């Protein structure tokens, strides 16, 4: 199994990073944004994109131990929390949600990161 996952984002090549990396049993997913009409839509899409990376490296939603959500001042924190609860309610990973000044890309309201722990190969 490859220990890096690339999803084809232009930023991966430009900034020299992978969407996710696995070392032993740890999977770290880079800051992930996604399109959507509002905070809820962007959060769901970003979390799904991040979970796709976890799955590609041998994990699943139940292996996610920490999430981070970075929201702009224009974001609706309750909508982001609702989206998070829909995808992780049964798993209940540790979470940090922060309001930040801005994100790269004026259209983005939310960016997410995930950490997962899986059995070592």
Would you kindly provide a written description of the structure presented here, covering whatever features stand out?
The protein has three helices and six strands; from the N terminus they run E-H-E-E-H-E-H-E-E. The chain is an alpha+beta fold. The protein has a six-stranded mixed sheet with strand order 1-2-3-6-4-5, covered by helices on one side. The relative contact order is 0.25.
Could you outline the blueprint of secondary structure elements for this entry?
Blueprint: E1 4-5, H1 10-15, E2 20-23, E3 26-32, H2 39-56, E4 64-71, H3 77-88, E5 94-99, E6 110-117
Parallel strand pairs: 4-5
Antiparallel strand pairs: 1-2, 2-3, 3-6, 4-6
Helix pairs in contact: 2-3
Q: In one word, what is the shape?
A: globular
Helical percentage: 25-40%
Beta strands, count = 6
Give the uncertain stretches in residue-range form: none
How many helical stretches? 3
Structural class: alpha+beta
Radius of gyration: 14 Å
Chain-averaged pLDDT: 96
Q: Which percent band covers the strand fraction? A: 25-35%
Largest beta-sheet details: 6 strands, mixed
Distance between the termini: 9 Å
Name a few traits of the molecule.
single chain; 121 residues; six-stranded mixed beta sheet; 3 helices
In short:
With 121 residues, the protein is of the alpha+beta class. Helices cover 30% and strands 29% of the residues. The longest helix has 18 residues.
């Amino acid at each position: 199994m490859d220990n890096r996952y690339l999803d084809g984002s232009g930023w991966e090549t430009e900034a020299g990073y992978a969407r996710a990396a696995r070392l032993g049993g740890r999977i770290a997913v880079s800051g992930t944004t996604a399109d959507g009409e509002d905070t809820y839509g962007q959060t769901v899409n970003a979390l799904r994109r991040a979970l796709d990376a976890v799955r590609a490296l041998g994990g699943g939603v139940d292996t996610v131990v920490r999430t981070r959500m970075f929201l702009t001042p224009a974001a609706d924190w309750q909508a982001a929390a609702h989206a998070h609860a829909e995808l992780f309610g049964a798993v209940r990973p540790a979470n940090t949600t922060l309001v930040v000044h801005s994100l790269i890309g004026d259209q983005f309201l939310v960016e997410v990161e995930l950490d997962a722990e899986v059995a070592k190969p």
